[in-house]
Structures are given as structure tokens and as C-alpha cells.
């Protein structure tokens, strides 16, 4: 069927050029890129293996302790234990640990890359004016669109899954680091500069500590977005809980999809509470008294 | 003022805000005004041809209303803002020539600053905040803590060292700001509207405390304020800034009694002169006799040339105003540095008070002398502008009889 809109430009040439260019990159640099990213794969593999090797009660105790130390709330801790126990009881423990490993690895990469980017962005208005629209595009571009180049580059597997997750989850941490640093009281920054702080001392002693609550909020959002990627990432071979959902779709097993979906929600609730409680504590620290 | 007395010299400093500073400078040199420069080049003239020097150990107040450029100017002394043109010499060295490393060293140990809204680090304790300067200087932590405690004690915050800034009142927070600035042991102290955010009572406490500290430490203080009373109270000299231009630099008295132009005159018009003048400016020197010398004849002889004679009686002072030695009246004493305002209460009860200078009686202050001093001063302020004070005009207009006329003329002459 012919398009209703008149064909003004012949886009085929351009599209072929992009596709050919991409194929050329894959053919010539695919191996190099894969080798470069091998440490990332190792990190993910090690985390997954470690979490699956750890006896379940140790993992539950560890996460409970983390929840308690962040929130100082026994009810919250109790519900975290119950939720983890449910995940284990329905036979999804190993899948859940694979998902947690992917989420943590992606979050760690996003934070390690995103916070410095946010800091640089806070320093330069020009860079910010370029970066903000890019981040907007990244956040609105349908996630399947950047699955394609990653799968082409690396083939289905864990590497494209983690990279796609990082790309999807990194904008909040960049954005909120930039925002947090820009919101720091100008007079406090001016004071430390007047007393002879170098730019890096200014950053470490004032800007980052005072921006920390906002940065924590960014990390929290990044964690949640990474978790929300697991189902999609499972389509390109990430495994884990998302794979169970995918199988539920393929085999038309509603129960499988539902149980795995609930397990994902439980993980989200637990990690959201931990991250939020840490953020709140960082904030409280700044608001002593009054 | 000899060269060695000069601590800081500001030499033709200009600051242009905007993207075309060179064009703006050229326009300024061609004689354009601020508005014209803005129209032609889109640049804002922040400071224009600022030129003055500050003596070692003096408290120099820069005063102006908001938008006058005073906060811009003070940030030039530690290069938080870079000038478009001009030099600032500290101890003869142009700070504009310093490279990044020298500038850091200068900020760390040569100059320190107190901020209007305190600028304390909210996540650190009072003590941690106080030692921020020494730590940046690279002083050993234990030594820095000792120094910090000393400064906190000096500003009266002992016992609060482990609190956080938010737990303290505004006045206490600013004491932390002051302690932090003093802990660097820098010679020059910049105070940017340091007391403007405080309640009036706390503000005057802080002013007194600053004066006491300054009497001991003899720093060179550059103090920014929009409050003329504060400027007169603290400043050895005052600079008045308007629209980025210096209108007058002088002592409080010079500013009050010899304003350089209409703007300064309008600025100082509302000042209560009784607070600005001191007993020193008004009293009459009179002979002082010990009790044994004070025979009737001697006193009478002296009274022919002097309005009064003081007779000391141990620590008690008596004032004799007529030939009768018994007419000696016990009189209260007031220090020569006290303001006239402080003498009013005493003068309400007594005809004369004894003015003490350095602990010894020097003369007397009477109601008449106090009034004369107040009139003379406001008269001088107005005469410079060939303007008759309105209140005097009213007096003359309303008076129909000769006696009132004489009073009016007398006031004018005085």
C-alpha cells in the first residue's frame, strides 16, 4: 500500500549507509569491543555466581541487615525478610539472584560513569545545554531501539543486556548529580573558595556532601529503572526473573508470568526502601536541629 | 600617610559585567555614563575608577545602598571576582599578578572573609567549621583543633564546639563565621555585610565584640555595610559608593560634617548627630584645682577668664561657677569618648558634668555647650551647600520680635 504522504526524499540511500556503516564497525571492531568489555562480563558473572553460591539464609540476613541499618525500622526489615522468603519458596531464588546481579552491576556502572558526568555538567553551562536534550532523548527513546545496535555489536548475551540497562538507567543519576551540585548554597561554596580551597577540595568538601541527598535520589531512580529493564533484557539473553516472564508469554502460562512478576515487584520494593532510607538519612544529617 | 602605613592600595579598578568589556571600557574612557554604556554595548558597569588606600590596622568601611557595587568591590580583594582593569596592591604586591598557586596561598593565609549569610558548612560541627582555614593551610590537625578552640573561646562559643550550625541562633552562627576567619591568622579581614542579617540587639553586641577583638588583634578590616550608624560606629574611615563610583572617602566626622556632594549629604542627613558627636567635640577646657588650692579668691580670679573651675576632692569632682567657694556642686563625670547622647541624661539633672580624659578631669560640658556643638555641626554640614537648614528658616520666619530674631541669628552664626 502506497503511503498517503508524498515521497519527497529517498531515505533508502541514507538508511543503507547507516546500516552498512554499522556492519562495518561490527565486522572490524566487534572483537575489540567485546574484549574491552570482558571485565564487565566477568564482574557480572562473578556477582551472579557469588549470589547464587551464598546460602539463602545468609543472603536474607545480609539484606535484612542492610534494610535495618538504612531505615532503623523493624517492620520494614520484617517485610523484606518475608518477601525474600516468598521468592525462595516459589522456586525463583536463583533467577532472582541473577536479576539482582544484573541490576547491581548495571547500577554500579551507571553510578561510576554518571556521577562524574553530572559533576562535569554542573561546571559548564554549555555542556549542560548540550547534555540535557540528549538525556531527554535517551529517556524517551523506546528501549527496543537501542537494543538493536548492542545486539548487533555483541550478539545476544549478557553484555548487550547490561549495556542496554546502563544506557536506560543512567540519565537520572547524571541529571540529579548536576541538579544537586547546582543547588548547593552559593555562599557556602564561595566561603570555602575564599579560604583557599582548590577546585577539587571544593568538590569533595562542600559540593558533593551537600548534594548527596539529591544524588542519592538519582541513584535510587537509576536502581529502579535498571530493575525495570530486566524483562526486556531477558529477551536478549540476560536470564533471571525476566526470562521466566518471557517464557510465560511464549508458553501462555499466566501463572509463571504472574509469580515472576510478583518477585520482580518484591525486589523493587526492597531496593527502593533501602535506597530511599539512605537518601533520607543523608538529608537528615544536613538538617540538624530545628 | 607614609608608604609603609598602606596595607592595601586600590588603583583605578574597573569592573564591567557583560560580553564586550573592551568596548565598554573604551566608551567609559571617552566619557560615557553608565546608562550610555549599557545602551551602546549591553554591558553593566559594576565599578568605575575605584581608587583609595587602606592603612595597616584600620577598620575601613565601604558603604552604599544595594546595587552600589560594594559586594562586588569586596570580592576583588581576594579575587573571587576579577577586575576588568586596575590593580590591587596588598603589602605592595599586585594580587592581579598572582598565578593560581600564589593566589591559593594568599587566600589561605593572607586574607580571610566573613559572609552575610554566614556561609558555614551545614554538615560539619562548629569546631570543624572553625578549623577549615588552618586545615586548608596544611596545619597539623591537632594544632588546628587547638587554634580553633582558642578562637571559639575568643568569640564566646566555648561549649558549643560539637553542635551543628543549624542548631545555633543567627548571632552565634556569625560568631562561628568570625572565629573561622580569625583562625587563619590572616592580617586582612573582609566582612561582607557581616551583621546585616542579625537582629538589632545582637547586631550591636557583635559590633562591640568586633571592636574589642580589633583592639587586641589590630587586623586590617574591610567592612561592608548599608547601615550608616554601623559605619560610623565601627569605621576608622568610611568610603561611600554609589553606582559603582566612589563618592567620598573620609573619617566619620568628615563624611558627616563635610559631605563631598549632594548624594553623601542626603545619605547622612538623617543621622542623629548626638550619637555621632563625642563629649570631646563639645566640652570646654577649664582649670582644675585640688581642694587645698581652691580658695575663694583664686577661684574667683580664674572664673573671670573661664566659665567654670573644677575642684577635685579625692575622687569626687565639684564644679564652681561663681565666686562663692560654697557654690561648688558635686558633678557627675563622663568620658571624653562618650557620645553627646550619653551625656543628655546627666545634663538633664545637672548644669554641668566633668569630662574625663584618660582618667583625669579635663573640662566641663554644659547644656549650652552640648547644644552649641550640635548646632555648629549641622550648620557646617548645611553651609557647605549654601543652604539654610529648613528648621532654622522656620524659626526665623515665625519670630516677630527682636529677641527671637537674635536667637535665630545666633543659631545661624553658631
From TrEMBL, chain A:
Cellular localisation: Cell membrane
CDD domains noted in UniProt: TM_PBP2 (cd06261)
Topological relation to the membrane, as annotated: Multi-pass membrane protein
Transmembrane segments: 50-69, 76-94, 100-122, 134-153, 159-177, 226-246, 258-275
Keywords: Cell membrane, Membrane, Transmembrane, Transmembrane helix, Transport
Keyword Transport: yes
Record-linked Gene3D superfamilies: MetI-like
Secretion signal, residue range per the UniProt entry: none
Boundaries of every ABC transmembrane type-1 domain copy: 96-275
Any Pfam family hit: BPD_transp_1
Keyword Ribosomal protein among record annotations: no
Matches recorded under InterPro entries: MetI-like, MetI-like_sf
Family indicated by similarity: Belongs to the binding-protein-dependent transport system permease family.
PANTHER family from the UniProt entry: GLYCINE BETAINE/PROLINE BETAINE TRANSPORT SYSTEM PERMEASE PROTEIN PROW, GLYCINE BETAINE_PROLINE BETAINE TRANSPORT SYSTEM PERMEASE PROTEIN PROW
Name this protein carries in UniProt: Glycine betaine/proline transport system permease protein
Lineage: Bacteria, Pseudomonadati, Pseudomonadota, Alphaproteobacteria, Hyphomicrobiales
TrEMBL record, chain B:
Predominant localisation class: membrane
Compartments where found: Cell inner membrane
Domain ABC transporter positions: 8-268
Keyword annotations: ATP-binding, Cell inner membrane, Cell membrane, Membrane, Nucleotide-binding, Plasmid, Transport
The UniProt record lists the keyword Zinc: no
Reactions mediated catalytically: a quaternary ammonium(out) + ATP + H2O = a quaternary ammonium(in) + ADP + phosphate + H(+)
Family to which this protein belongs: Belongs to the ABC transporter superfamily.
Protein name: Quaternary amine transport ATP-binding protein
Originating species: Aminobacter aminovorans (Chelatobacter heintzii)
Lineage: Bacteria, Pseudomonadati, Pseudomonadota, Alphaproteobacteria, Hyphomicrobiales
Amino acid at each position: 500500500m502506497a503511503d498517503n504522504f508524498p515521497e519527497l526524499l529517498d531515505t533508502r540511500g541514507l538508511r543503507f549507509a547507516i546500516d552498512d556503516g554499522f556492519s562495518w564497525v561490527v565486522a572490524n571492531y566487534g572483537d575489540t569491543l567485546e574484549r574491552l568489555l570482558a571485565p564487565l562480563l566477568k564482574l557480572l558473572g562473578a556477582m551472579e555466581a557469588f549470589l547464587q553460591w551464598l546460602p539463602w539464609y545468609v543472603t536474607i540476613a545480609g539484606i535484612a541487615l542492610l534494610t535495618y541499618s538504612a531505615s532503623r525500622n523493624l517492620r520494614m526489615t520484617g517485610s523484606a525478610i518475608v518477601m525474600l522468603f516468598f521468592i525462595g519458596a516459589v522456586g525463583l531464588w536463583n533467577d532472582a539472584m541473577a536479576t539482582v546481579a544484573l541490576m547491581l552491576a548495571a547500577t554500579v556502572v551507571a553510578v561510576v560513569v554518571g556521577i562524574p558526568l553530572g559533576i562535569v555538567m554542573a561546571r559548564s553551562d554549555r555542556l549542560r545545554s548540550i547534555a540535557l536534550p540528549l538525556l531527554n532523548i535517551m529517556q524517551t527513546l523506546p528501549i527496543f531501539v537501542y537494543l538493536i545496535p548492542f545486539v548487533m555489536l555483541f550478539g545476544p548475551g549478557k553484555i548487550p543486556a547490561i549495556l542496554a540497562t546502563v544506557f536506560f538507567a543512567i540519565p537520572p543519576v547524571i541529571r540529579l548529580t548536576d541538579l544537586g551540585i547546582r543547588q548547593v548554597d552559593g555562599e557556602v561554596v564561595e566561603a570555602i573558595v575564599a579560604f583557599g580551597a582548590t577546585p577539587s577540595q571544593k568538590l569533595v568538601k562542600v559540593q558533593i556532601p551537600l548534594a548527596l541527598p539529591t544524588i542519592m535520589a538519582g541513584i535510587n531512580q537509576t536502581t529502579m529503572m535498571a530493575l525495570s529493564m530486566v524483562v526486556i533484557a531477558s529477551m536478549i539473553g540476560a536470564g533471571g526473573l525476566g526470562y521466566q516472564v518471557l517464557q510465560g508469554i511464549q508458553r501462555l502460562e499466566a501463572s509463571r508470568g504472574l509469580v515472576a512478576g510478583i518477585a520482580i515487584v518484591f525486589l523493587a520494593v526492597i531496593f527502593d526502601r533501602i535506597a530511599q532510607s539512605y537518601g533520607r538519612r543523608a538529608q537528615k544529617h544536613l538538617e540538624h536541629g530545628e | 600617610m607614609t608608604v609603609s602605613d598602606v596595607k592595601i592600595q586600590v588603583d583605578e579598578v574597573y569592573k564591567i559585567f557583560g560580553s564586550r568589556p573592551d568596548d565598554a571600557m573604551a566608551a567609559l574612557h571617552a566619557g560615557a555614563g553608565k546608562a550610555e554604556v549599557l545602551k551602546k554595548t549591553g554591558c553593566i558597569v559594576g565599578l568605575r575608577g575605584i581608587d583609595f588606600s587602606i592603612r595597616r590596622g584600620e577598620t575601613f568601611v565601604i558603604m552604599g545602598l544595594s546595587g552600589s557595587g560594594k559586594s562586588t568591590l569586596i570580592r576583588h580583594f581576594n579575587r573571587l571576582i576579577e577586575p576588568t582593569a586596575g590593580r590591587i596592591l596588598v603589602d605592595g604586591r599586585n594580587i592581579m599578578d598572582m598565578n593560581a598557586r600564589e593566589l591559593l596561598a594568599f587566600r589561605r593565609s593572607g586574607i580571610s572573609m566573613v559572609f552575610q549569610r554566614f556561609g558555614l558548612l551545614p554538615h560539619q560541627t562548629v569546631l570543624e567549621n572553625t578549623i577549615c582555614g588552618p586545615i586548608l593551610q596544611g596545619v597539623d590537625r591537632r594544632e588546628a583543633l587547638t587554634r580553633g578552640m582558642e578562637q571559639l573561646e575568643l568569640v564566646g562559643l566555648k561549649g558549643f564546639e560539637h553542635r551543628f550550625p543549624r542548631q545555633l541562633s543567627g548571632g552565634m552562627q556569625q560568631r562561628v563565621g568570625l572565629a573561622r576567619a580569625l583562625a587563619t591568622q590572616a592580617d586582612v579581614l573582609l566582612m561582607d555585610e557581616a551583621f546585616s542579617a542579625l537582629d538589632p540587639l545582637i547586631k550591636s553586641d557583635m559590633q562591640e565584640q568586633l571592636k574589642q577583638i580589633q583592639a587586641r588583634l589590630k587586623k586590617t578590616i574591610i567592612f561592608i555595610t548599608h547601615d550608616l550608624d554601623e559605619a560610623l560606629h565601627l569605621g576608622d574611615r568610611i568610603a561611600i559608593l554609589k553606582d559603582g563610583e566612589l563618592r567620598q572617602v573620609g573619617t566619620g566626622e568628615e563624611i558627616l560634617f563635610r559631605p563631598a556632594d549632594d548624594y553623601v549629604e542626603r545619605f547622612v542627613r538623617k543621622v542623629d548627630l548626638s550619637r555621632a558627636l563625642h563629649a570631646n567635640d563639645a566640652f570646654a577646657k577649664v582649670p582644675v584645682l585640688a581642694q587645698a588650692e581652691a580658695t575663694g579668691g583664686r577661684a574667683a580670679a580664674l572664673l573671670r577668664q573661664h566659665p567654670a573651675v573644677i575642684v577635685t576632692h579625692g575622687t569626687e569632682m565639684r564644679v564652681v561657677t561663681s565666686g562663692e567657694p560654697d557654690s561648688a556642686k558635686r558633678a557627675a563625670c563622663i568620658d571624653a569618648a562618650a557620645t553627646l547622647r550619653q551625656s543628655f541624661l546627666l545634663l538633664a539633672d545637672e548644669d554641668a558634668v566633668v569630662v574625663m580624659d584618660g582618667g583625669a578631669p579635663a573640662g566641663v560640658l554644659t547644656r549650652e555647650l552640648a547644644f552649641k556643638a550640635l548646632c555648629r555641626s549641622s550648620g557646617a554640614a548645611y553651609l557647605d551647600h549654601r543652604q539654610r537648614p529648613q528648621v532654622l528658616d522656620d524659626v526665623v520666619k515665625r519670630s516677630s520680635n527682636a529677641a527671637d530674631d537674635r536667637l535665630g541669628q545666633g543659631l545661624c552664626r553658631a
